[in-house]
Specification:
This protein is α+β, with helices and mostly antiparallel strands. It folds into three domains: 15-55 and 162-229 and 370-407, FAD/NAD(P)-binding domain (3-Layer(bba) Sandwich); 102-153, no CATH class; 233-247 and 258-362, no CATH class. The chain is built from eleven helices and 20 strands. Strands 5, 6, 7, 13, 14, 15, 16, 17 and 18 form a nine-stranded mixed β-sheet that branches. α2 (74-93) packs across α11.
Amino acid sequence: MAFGQGGRVGQYFDCDVLVIGGGIVGLSTAYALTRAAPGTRVIVLEKERATALHQTGRNSGVIHSGIYYRPGSLKARFAVTGAAEMVKFCAEYGIPHQVTGKLIVATGRDELPRLHALVQRGRENGIPVRELGPAQIMEYEPQVRGLAAIRVATTGVCDFGAVAERLAIEADAAGAEVRCGEEVTAVDRRPWGVAVRTAAGTVLRARTLVNCAGLYCDRVARLAGDDPGMRIVPFRGEYYELADPSLVRGLVYPVPDPAFPFLGVHLTRGIDGGVHVGPNAVPALAREGYRWPVVRPGELAATLTWPGSWRIARRHWRYGAGELRRSLSKPAFTAAVRRLLPSVTESGLRPVAAGVRAQAVLRDGTLVDDFMIRETPRIVHVLNAPSPAATASLPIGREIARRVLAVR
């Protein structure tokens, strides 16, 4: 689809780099570009009325240490460096944050080998960890019970929405422009660069495009004529909060199942003093399906017709059935929490806003477990950036900026 004539060297550009997506990764990319190459003209397009309204603004606010991730992976590298940078960034700009540390607690003997494996992984990633017995667990968290645990001191919490807002302000001060209410509906790659059209009829031309569209990144890739080789399958994460936040002092996690890129239902004391409980992971019926009644037939059909979705279902149906049961049954959700926090009751849990994870799934049913960044002529696609992307957003932004500037 062509939006106009032209294409000679030196033709008019609205910007050097056009970023689609005003979440924390897109804004960090704009921030990094303006610092790495002052004078670079950057425009960020966000389809919503404001930035950071989806994954960035709908999570538990945890600054992850990087302990879970395969040594050498982008997640491991960026989370470890990103956690330290995020704390420094928050301190520099007065953004509320705390480095609280967290406990990862084994409640069954079958979890002990996985807990010990996490100790080794943490050390390989350069993360200091301390192994705890039952009595030591209670010294940190008097209401929590477990057979063993590890304490990770570098984990913390912050307000990622406020971080995204500050990134936008700093990028704007350096000459970037963030435009909200501009949903991209068409992408035209030309020899001279890329042009996009928005739902409002705006046409913008740029030398390079960066796709940070999160829940819609695969759709944007296809608009550009690229086959991303994956599809976003949305998983809703539902949260409760403790009616009595004094039951938990900091952050408490279960031992995760290594077969899934989800960390399990955990307890997170936020910067506001409340304690979030969750999330679970259930298939959403829309990419922005924050509640069960939200259904978008076209998006649901796209999920159901992707071969990887059926392969996930066949391979992991038992796990999925358990997550679904905890979604539909508050007693079942409460029972899962009680494994860590026996004193909690069903009436002691109050529902709060859910989030949706943009999970990349390959055709063979593989749940992509690392950040996925792909380059095609004139375009950089960010195709998988779920948690810990917020933690790692500063180094991710620099990496994307590096790739953009290398091909300009």
